[in-house]
């Protein structure tokens, strides 16, 4: 029977240790850091193309914006949010691995959803809508 120093095991019977978790999350981290790079590049590229001081962040069913954020928050807020969520997931995996399940898939899905949301918001703002 395999156990790590703390005696933690995953549902599949794999040992949950820091070295094993780093190995398991490499694919998710590639997706996450690629998304961060794309979001950063799009913010840098589209910042001068956004003329307004505020960026629409959410739209109603009628297609009209429901709330706006200051331009710096619209450009960099979702990147900071993604980094904070990834840090939270890393902390949970490090200090409470027995309660973390499906982190790989979760990090990949979060990365893709936040990337698409960020691009949508910035492209709409750059169009002037």
Describe this entry's structure for a reader:
With 129 residues, the protein is mainly α. The chain has one domain (18-127). Helix content is 60%, strand content 9%. It is built from 4 helices and 2 strands. Mean pLDDT is 85; it is low at 1-5.
Task: Please describe the structure with a list of short key phrases separated by commas or semicolons.
single chain; 129 residues; mainly alpha; two-stranded antiparallel sheet; 4 helices; elongated
Q: Can you tell me the overall shape?
A: elongated
The count of domains is 1
Q: How many β strands by DSSP?
A: 2
**Helicity level, as a percent range?**
55-70%
Structural class: mainly alpha
What are the low-pLDDT stretches, counting only 5+ consecutive residues below 50? Answer: 1-5
Overall average pLDDT: 85
Order of helices and strands: HHEEHH
